[in-house]
């Protein structure tokens, strides 16, 4: 596990050289908010990192329901029975195994794995604009129908789940990067993801923290380039194929 810190945000990276999977600890006055739950074996490392920081994990927020973001959730809930688990109301259905679509949503098939044996369930269902400690919830559908991002209102750091990837090159969800193709393979709707990416860019974050790859300070120009590339690909049909035909 690799640990990197930037102001209130600590990035924990599992399998950093092979298949980097990030989760984040956000420091608040009286505790820590864990964003995402990484891989099934990650619980011990997450708990040890929190212990080193000297504060309890009081909240667990999931950016979306895919297995590399909820993997250690059951073990963490056993170790932290009082911790509040939150996910978007939309992705709570996916977390429970419901892959049905709502009227008006892209009709593409929902992709990516959700552990069939996952027992933990959310205590709180999140909506756009909700606050979780110092974090404001931003709806960012595309990778999944209920994906969210979280903006730290103190620092301007934006934790985006898989709405963007940094590993293999900055890219909007659904845009294939040969050096790290997995987020694209798991994306439900590249067109929806592109709209969400523009929305996140318009927040002008001071730092971008994604599910895969290093944290990026002053990321707006790189986000612009990724958005422009995604728009070109979608206009030509390439971006849609990258997300739907894995």
Short characterization:
This protein is an alpha/beta fold. The chain has 8 helices and 15 strands.
Structural features, described:
- The protein is an alpha/beta fold and 246 residues long.
- It has a single domain (2-244), classed as Ribonuclease Z/Hydroxyacylglutathione hydrolase-like (Metallo-beta-lactamase, Chain A, 4-Layer Sandwich), CATH 3.60.15.
- It is 28% helix and 25% strand.
- The protein is built from eight helices and 15 strands.
- The chain has helices at 43-53, 67-70, 73-79, 89-95, 182-185, 190-201, 220-236, 238-244; strands spanning 2-6, 9-14, 21-27, 32-35, 57-61, 84-88, 124-126, 131-132, 135-139, 148-152, 157-161, 164-165, 171-172, 207-210, 216-217.
- Strands 1-2-3-4-5-6-7 form a seven-stranded mixed beta sheet.
- α6 (190-201) packs antiparallel against α7.
- Residues 238-246 have low confidence and may be disordered.
Task: Set down the secondary structure blueprint.
Layout: E1 2-6, E2 9-14, E3 21-27, E4 32-35, H1 43-53, E5 57-61, H2 67-70, H3 73-79, E6 84-88, H4 89-95, E7 124-126, E8 131-132, E9 135-139, E10 148-152, E11 157-161, E12 164-165, E13 171-172, H5 182-185, H6 190-201, E14 207-210, E15 216-217, H7 220-236, H8 238-244
Parallel strand pairs: 4-5, 5-6, 6-7, 11-14
Antiparallel strand pairs: 1-2, 2-3, 3-4, 8-9, 9-10, 10-11, 12-13, 14-15
Helix pairs in contact: 6-7
